[in-house]
Amino acid sequence: MDSTPRTPTAIDQVAERWVDTLVDLAPTLGTYIGRDEVNGRFGDLSPEGHAEIAAATRRTLDELSALEPVDTIDEVTKTDLSAELRLDLELHEAKWHLRDLNVIASAAQDVRSAFDLMPTGSADDWSVIAQRLAAVPDALRGYTATLREGIAQGVTPARRQVVEVATQIDRYTADDGFFASFVADAAPDEGQLPASLARTLADNSAAARVAYHELRRFLAEELVPAASDVDAVGRELYALNSRRFLGATIDLDETYDWGREELARMVAEQTAIANEIVPGASVEEAVAHLEADPSRKLVGTEALQRWMQETSDRAVAELAASHFDIPEAIRTIECMIAPTQEGGIYYTGPTDDFSRPGRMWWSVPEGVTEFDTWRELTTVYHEGVPGHHLQIAQAVYNRAELNSWRRLLAGTSGHAEGWALYAERLMEQLGYLDDPADRLGMLDGQRMRAARVVLDIGVHLGKPRLDGDGIWDAAYALDFMRGNVNMSDQFVQFEVNRYLGWPGQAPSYKVGQRIWEQVREAVQQREGERFSFKDFHKRALDIGGVGLDTLRSVLLPR
After folding, report:
1. Confidence class of residue 426 from pLDDT cuts 50, 70 and 90?
2. Do 122 and 520 touch, CB atoms closer than 8 A?
3. Which of 52, 172, 512, 555 has a CA positioned 20 to 30 A from the CA of residue 107?
4. In the prediction, which pLDDT does 2 show?
């Protein structure tokens, strides 16, 4: 990257002000990017709070529309930020916020997870945590008011999501749950907490638990009876959410058909590799053979965390020496066991100043104590390097060219998750998955992502079932997923509930990979012998997070 800072433009200034606005109105976003000045509070999750964000969105869009780009960086910022702002307004007008409750990425989880990224090294840090704990009741009351307004307007989430979130809350509020354990384990680096602060933390944590109990009561007594008994959101809302997660408009029916073809291709590839592992074996037999191999197994979360960290550190060191330009500032990634037991594996980016590095989190379901290295090796590459960490941390690092919105908040799931799946295949091409067992594990994940394209579009658009017996529903989706993954049933059930409640997100992985690969192939054809994988990846990552339509237009200008 050019070390000479680019002179900020009027469009950059609008983008910077939008970051400040979001940090002010949605402080949990501020926590994510390291704006610690807002760590003591939450945003207004009530209908009035959503209206305030919508009004700010309109003002920012009007400001942006009145400006002309001065260079190509400005063109990308204006194109991508304008598209995001317009889509946010479309979702608001569609009343999505009134039904926004699901098992993985709604306010019910966000309020709790805000504490995962807060500094805990000093008594002052714990004092700020106490302030945010005290703010939990108001935040959840606002969220309840929004969901209650949804009931009044007949705009509600699916009953399945409400019931599952209520179960999650039971785990948060248990005597050995998150809030009790979090403050009980409070231990700043400098020594003991002052007694008065320890009491405040205990009191505010108890108040947060009571607030979550109240949210659960509302869910059970008011929202469950009013909730929809249909999981599908329908074509119109699905198309909006698909655009939200891809930053691109796709033909949903063509993508569904492609997903079926891609799934069949993954099955054929798995079958061929199974034969390499055990001659004549089916995929299921090869999996059983690998699962019985103690040399490929980790026992306990401590062993899992240690193996994740060692594998990640090795990938960073080797790839930085060969295939990627990896600045020193982003060569650190922390592998963490999450303080929850929900079943997800996810990445959180570094703060703007890299004082908190990028982190890979594993939320291990209750009762799961064994992990197969052959299955999870590609997960480390997906979440770490050359996957999410390289992509996201590289954008944060590119301060010389990109404004704060471009570095810290821009982008879509399709761009990020598509790159991560692209990175998995790239590691195969670079020789990191030469062991057939590791390739089978990679394909297990790729097969799951292809299956999700079919399942997600199938359920939410009401497609005919593949067996011809009616249309897609939750029960068929669960059976279909069980037949296409080799994972614990707790994980599979969580995943299917996630797809049902978060429409359009799950396909963004495989569809994003498809678009990344299409773009690379087109650039390769255009450049011929001049094409370099290393240069292509640097150009692509230096753009930062963008929608996939924007990515295509930047790398393949007309």
Report:
1. very high
2. no
3. 512
4. 46
Report yes or no: 547 and 412 within 8 Å, Cβ to Cβ.
Answer: yes
pLDDT of residue 3: 56
Rounded Cα gap, residues 152 and 517, in angstroms: 46
How many whole angstroms separate alpha carbon 161 and alpha carbon 150? Answer: 15
**How far is it, in rounded angstroms, from Cα 540 to Cα 390?**
12
Asked if 136 contacts 109 with a C-beta cutoff of 8 angstroms, the reply is no
Element (H, E) at 157: none
**pTM (two decimals):** 0.89
CB 375 within 8 A of CB 352: no
Residue 442 has, within 13 A of its CA and on its CB side, a CA count of 26
Owner of token pair 């669960």: 478
- 122: which 2 tokens? 């000093």
Cα 546 → chain centroid: 15
Cis peptide before 386 (omega within 30 of 0): yes
Domain ranges of the chain: 10-233, 242-509
Residue type for position 322: S
CA 39 and chain centroid, separation: 21
Give the number of other Cβ atoms within 10 Å of residue 79's Cβ: 18
Helix axes 436-460, 235-246, angle to 10 degrees: 140
- Taking 3-state DSSP, the helix, strand and coil percentages for the chain, each rounded to the nearest 5, stand at 65, 5, 30
Q: Quickly state the pLDDT bin for 325 (edges 50, 70, 90).
A: confident
Can you name the residues that pair with 290 across neighbouring β-strands?
A: none
Measure the CA–CA gap between 146 and 96, rounded to whole angstroms: 11
Q: Is 69 helix (H, G, I), strand (E, B) or coil?
A: coil
What proportion of the chain, given as a percentage, has pLDDT over 70?
A: 99
C-alpha 92/C-alpha 510 separation (Å) is 27
The answer to whether 173 touches 165, Cβ cutoff 8 Å, is no
Please say whether the dihedral angle defined by the alpha carbons of residues 302, 307, 308 and 314, taken in this order, is positive or negative.
Answer: positive
Residues near 72 by beta carbon (within 8 Å), at least 6 away in sequence:
554
Q: How many CA atoms lie within 13 A of 179 on its CB side?
A: 29
Closest CA to 286 of 294, 278, 296: 278
Name the one residue in this structure whose structure tokens are 């999501």. Answer: 161
Query: How does residue 255 score in pLDDT terms, banded at 50, 70 and 90?
Result: very high
β partners of residue 345: 362
State how far the Cα of 359 lies from the Cα of 117, in Å rounded to an integer: 10
Quote the mean pLDDT of the chain: 94
Q: What residues contact residue 347 under an 8 Å CB cut-off, 6+ apart?
A: 358, 359, 360, 361, 383, 384, 387, 388, 389, 392
